[in-house]
Amino acid sequence: REEIEADGLCDDLGAVRDQDIARAMAGLSTDGMSRVVDVLPDDRRAAVFGFLEPRAQYALVERLGETRARELLEALRPDNLTALLEHLEPEEGEAVVRRLSPHRVQQALRLLGYPPESAGRLMTPEFIALRPEWTLAYALEHVQQHAGRSETIDTLYVTDAHGRLLGWTGLRKLVLGAPQSTVESLMDSDPVHAVVGDDREEVARQIQHYDLTALPVVDEGGVLLGMVTIDDVMDVVEEEATEDIHKLGGLGARQVSLRGASILDLFKKRIGWLLLLVFLAIFAAGAVSAFEETLEAAVVLSFFLPLIIGSGGNAGSQGATMMVRALATGDVGPKDWLKLWVRELGVASALGLTMGAAAWGIGLFYGGTMLANVVFLSMIAVVVFGSMVGMLMPFLLTRFNLDPATASAPLITSIADIGGILIYFGIATAWIGVTGASPAG
Amino acid sequence: REEIEADGLCDDLGAVRDQDIARAMAGLSTDGMSRVVDVLPDDRRAAVFGFLEPRAQYALVERLGETRARELLEALRPDNLTALLEHLEPEEGEAVVRRLSPHRVQQALRLLGYPPESAGRLMTPEFIALRPEWTLAYALEHVQQHAGRSETIDTLYVTDAHGRLLGWTGLRKLVLGAPQSTVESLMDSDPVHAVVGDDREEVARQIQHYDLTALPVVDEGGVLLGMVTIDDVMDVVEEEATEDIHKLGGLGARQVSLRGASILDLFKKRIGWLLLLVFLAIFAAGAVSAFEETLEAAVVLSFFLPLIIGSGGNAGSQGATMMVRALATGDVGPKDWLKLWVRELGVASALGLTMGAAAWGIGLFYGGTMLANVVFLSMIAVVVFGSMVGMLMPFLLTRFNLDPATASAPLITSIADIGGILIYFGIATAWIGVTGASPAG
User: Fold this and answer.
1) B306: which chain A residues are within 8 Å (Cβ-Cβ)?
2) Mean pLDDT, residues A208-230 taken together
């Protein structure tokens, strides 16, 4: 069946785009992929290879003939080569590096020397640099001669004799300007730029905020080292959002493609948090056991346990979710916590009152006025408690330089559970006045 | 204090970028903003205004003198004007439209005629179209003359005499090609494009998948209507991620900036789901009450209720989160559900066994072997049940054309609660053999 698929892929390649061939290949075995590579026209092979996922690229390199593997690796754009090497185990990386020309090895090692998730890892070191004193006519000629050396020529940078970034301009300005005017006269000086060690999230934020299509990357001395293009940044924005979503859902940070993941991969991504939450639940069990006598006197209280603790957890999850996302997009900053806390107190009180009123009716139905009152009061207290935990936890985590998204819905729910149990049975014990019930269990 | 801020803003504007002025203005009152607009140099006023949020733009239009308001609105790019009108109440929109020239009114009404969140709402109708038979030299001249009409000239489209899209090319190809060759000889025919009613998420996915910086938008007949540029799509990717994150956290879909939201805004965004979950919890209360006699016979069972139902909810939240995100990024498709279900069954069993083993120890500590065994078995069953619900719910929702992200952590948790209670007390009733306990309560 796969053979047919591989052959079908190659039937009418003219109408299929490189990216779509790469996507279709992702579903094939290494054998199938190598058969597709073999029948691809010479001028499209490198492009398709460049769009494959790192794992698939590596598998192909190991599978293909030596000459072809070298050819494909050599044609890989520098930023894609960095991405490939980043994703490989050390001994696999060696197998790739062994096949590169000395110049590419040097380039790859330099790029991999920058910290993970930094601007340096994301950039391509190939760009076209103009000099400020050149005329536009001369600059245009220079661009025409060196266009092959750069990923894009829509954005062009201007440097001094030492390679220091002076400004940027666009091909469009060269074309629209008077041929005899100088580059300096139409460049934007003081361009937005990143330093090579900057976090890639910061790079994405700059490109987004300033509506750029490329961002220059410089070293500490201001020397231009490369550029990050917006298409790479789009992937970063998506990956970072996935990371946050996974963390909020109580999943480990390890990046795993759901499509290709094994049962073991998924087990590892999930078990850590789940066991930690089981451990937290010991305290919940302890909290319930502390009110054993209250419970024995009024088993009806346990009917409402899921409602009460669940509501605290739900309100808390909402609060944490809003805060984490707003911090990630820069909608609010860590310094805003006090203002947000005061407002959250207002919102939570209103939510608690509304939910308490609804729960009061349910309580009345099951156990009469007294139970209804206990449920009403507990609901308000629990929703406020849960919301406070959910809202403050992300800020606390940033304070300790931890990722606010660690305040996941499951974590907030587990903490709200323990608080909710204490609040609910505490109020019940006091109100119903089950004397003889000792909080020490 | 604000007056000082407004003045401070204007002290040294040369060094501050338009986007940063707009961001700083967001913190000011309408008075403060209008004072900044007044002192801005004439050539930067429109640019800064274009970067403001729609609400701030509207407030300014109402506050500024009539001439200046008209000037700023007229200079607004068509896609930004669409965004502004989209965000206003009907009577506010009228106040804006009243100030536009007839040509702009017509254009705005046409764009707003496309469905919300469609390619048409996102596109700018200003582009440069070339003819296939033109020489590059002639085309370049045409571009130079009409550059002001388009948001970008890096990407250029090729149409026939009826305006139908034939292909695309870039300024870079015009510059690098031989001046006497034709546009047709170097254009990409059969270009990736969107139809005007396509969802904006689909537009974002195409731009991302094909590494484009702009996507042409055509009508059903293939006539080129406009283009969507990548900087607008970056914002879409971020907004859609926020929407998914909020839904997964059990928040309403209403877009609210946390920074500017009132207590009422936030209450409205949160109360809907919370009340629905309270309603669901009635079933949880009913489920517990069905086992009243079992509970009366062994109150110790209630100690483990939070642990058991919480674990099902946590495993389910994880499963739902992974599925929702993988569906959103296209990592998996709705057709993959069976394969994923089988794998989830394997993962959930492994998770349940591990967590059950941990919970067994806790059970032993509180109540002996028999309780430990009940907790162990329940844990496995509940984790598998929760994971199945969490994993399948997003697929079920897509089947009914609903957003998979509706399968929020709080919703999955609430459903897992009810199932968990029935499983746990069911197993307990059977194993401990509390005879006389009637499941009908």
Assistant:
1) 281, 284-285, 288, 305, 309, 417, 421
2) 93
Q: How many H-runs (helices) and E-runs (strands) does chain B carry?
A: 21, 7
User: How is domain B2-113 classified at the architecture level of CATH?
Assistant: Alpha Horseshoe (1.25)
| Interface probe, candidates B143, B149, B172, B314, chain A, greatest A C-beta count within 10 A | B314
Nearest Cα of chain A lies from the Cα of B163 at a distance, in angstroms, of: 23
B225-247 pLDDT, tens per residue? 999 999 888 888 888 888 888 88
Q: How far is B260 from chain A (nearest CA, A)?
A: 9
- Contact at CB, A314 and B413, closer than 8 angstroms: yes
Band of pLDDT at residue B438, cut at 50, 70 and 90: very low
Span B160-200, pLDDT tens digits: 999 999 999 999 999 999 999 999 999 998 899 999 999 99
Amino acid at B341: W
Closest to B217 in 3D by CA, of B152, B132, B157: B157
pLDDT at A390 over 60: yes
- pLDDT digits over B301-332, tens only? 888 999 999 999 999 999 999 899 888 888 88
ipTM for the complex? 0.79
Chain A to chain B Cβ contacts (< 8 Å) = 342
CB of A208 less than 8 A from some CB of B:
yes
Residues of A in contact with B17 (CB under 8 A): 192, 210
Instruction: Tell me how far apart the alpha carbons of residues A34 and A20 are, in angstroms, rounded to a whole number.
Output: 16
pLDDT band at B249 (very low <50, low <70, confident <90, very high): confident
Model confidence pLDDT, tens digit, residues A262-297: 888 889 889 988 899 988 888 998 899 899 888 888
Burial of A110 (0-12, 13-18, 19+ CB in 10 A): middle
The yes-or-no verdict on residue A150 having pLDDT over 50 is yes
SS3 B299: coil
| Interatomic CA distance for residues A310 and B410, integer angstroms | 8
Cα dihedral angle (B247, B251, B254, B260), rounded to 10 degrees? -120
**Is A154–B19 a contact, with Cβ atoms under 8 angstroms apart?**
no
CATH of B263-433, one of 3.40.630.10, 3.60.20.10, 1.10.357.20, 3.40.50.620: 1.10.357.20
For B166, other C-beta atoms within 10 Å of its C-beta total: 21
Give the domain ranges of chain A: 2-113, 129-238, 263-433
What is A129-238's CATH superfamily?
A: CBS-domain (3.10.580.10)
Residue window 3-62, chain B: list those with CB within 8 Å of chain A: 15, 17, 19, 23
CB contact under 8 A, A285 and B277: no
